[in-house]
Amino acid sequence: MQTTTQIRKTFLDFFKREGHEHVASSPLVPLNDPTLMFTNAGMVQFKNVFTGNEQRPYKRAVTSQKCVRAGGKHNDLDNVGHTARHHTFFEMLGNFSFGDYFKAEAIDMAWRLVTKDYGLPADRLLVTVHSSDEDAAGLWKKIAGLPDEKILRIPTSDNFWSMGETGPCGPCSEIFYDHGEHIPGGPPGSPDEDGDRFIEIWNLVFMQFEQITKDERVDLPHPSIDTGMGLERIAAVLQGKHDNYDIDLMRTLIEAIAAAGGTDPDGPHQVSHRVIADHIRSCGFLIADGVLPSNEGRGYVLRRIMRRAMRHAHMMGVRDPIMHRLVPTLVHEMGQTFPELERAQALMTETLKLEEGRFRQMLDRGLRLLADETAGLAEGGTLPGEVAFKLYDTYGFPLDLTQDALRGQGMTVDTAGFNAAMERQRAEARKAWAGSGDAATEKVWFELQDRLGGTDFLGYATESAEGQI
Ligand code: ATP
Ligand code: MG
Ligand code: MG
Ligand code: MG
């Protein structure tokens, strides 16, 4: 069996042979880009190279980029645990051309890597192109010899990639792997495309434009290439698994959770094991890149992810903090590829331990309140926004944690009511805030950081007292 490490190496080696510079992953907190919460794709570190605002000594690059999709335009937080293919943290393998090669070469290299070096059978593969892109459709036919029915023309934004509201963008062409008839789901573009039978493994973006504002789009100085292949997704295919959570790396994490919690990874709490395995990666990597839990911005997203994992540990019946005990496995599995994990091991451990310790006390009480409040609700019922807000305000339950807890019972939250309650509280807090708020909680984090030493980039910190828990 090819390990995830070998699969990453095959990708990097292939493109190095094709004249690409191997560039290291950039941090999860994008440098010089306030428009983006976290690095969500390989192209992020090259954004200014595509637009011509920055020059590099190479025209071709290859990377394995750390990505987090848990906020902003690409947000997969709610998918984790419920699909076979989504993580909040994942690695995106990518090759890039900055005004060098374009569509034909990109398609040719992708097809050779997938069918020769990775050895996937061509009859399991199909591709999509944007419906306006006859050029790409013709190239797939010519280069890969794919029949028409395996080249699907998609008119929607699914085949027009953009990083966020602004930034480089262009039509794209995606390679899908058919995991087989026994798995529910339809081909891309069909009504049940969200199933997991046809899984998108690689997106080739033909970078041609820059979105300047919502209404203004200009041509890039040179047509360029940006591609992204999910390492965990290709690993699943190559390891003969349907599900990302069954690959070597994820399985090791899942088993570490089971060992730490005394739980059965394949029993009734399978989803919770997956959620925790996913979230320990995003939490660990975010902390290593300088994000610390707080009540605003990036720190708040981290806190939400942590708390979601902690709720799932609680659901499995684990009563002692568990997250920090997974750090050694994470570092052992990924520290060689990402040495920042080794450097931040003590900080990750302490941060997770402290956060989980604090949250545990409230979790029990909050979940009891939630159970009381939902006892009178029918399946498909709606929890009043006020209650969700109380859970947030008093027990530190982020809204998505409450939603996640209710999802299993087919219930939802009145989010408009939640927002209204939040707005009211904000207005009151602003009135009351005269520079003497309780910044004690935040202080703990700064002290911790000082004591243990920060990482290269200390990231985002906040002293806001709003929504203090
Ligand atoms: P999907 O449609 O499956 O959500 P996407 O179209 O949002 O994927 P892209 O933005 O095209 O994904 O990202 C490029 C590649 O990164 C995808 O083809 C996939 O292999 C991988 N990828 C994207 N999102 C995730 C995720 N949340 N977890 C794991 N891999 C991902
Ligand atoms: Mg997606
Ligand atoms: Mg997609
Ligand atoms: Mg895609």
From TrEMBL:
It catalyses: tRNA(Ala) + L-alanine + ATP = L-alanyl-tRNA(Ala) + AMP + diphosphate. Residues 2-469 form the Alanyl-transfer RNA synthetases family profile domain. It comes from the Bacteria. The keyword Protein biosynthesis applies. It is found in: Cytoplasm. One of its GO terms (molecular function) is aminoacyl-tRNA deacylase activity. One of its GO terms (biological process) is negative regulation of DNA-templated transcription. Keywords: Aminoacyl-tRNA synthetase, ATP-binding, Cytoplasm, Ligase, Metal-binding, Nucleotide-binding, Protein biosynthesis, RNA-binding, tRNA-binding, Zinc. Consists of three domains; the N-terminal catalytic domain, the editing domain and the C-terminal C-Ala domain. The editing domain removes incorrectly charged amino acids, while the C-Ala domain, along with tRNA(Ala), serves as a bridge to cooperatively bring together the editing and aminoacylation centers thus stimulating deacylation of misacylated tRNAs. This is Alanine--tRNA ligase. It comes from Rhodospira trueperi. The gene is alaS. The chain holds residues 1 to 469 of 887 of the full protein.
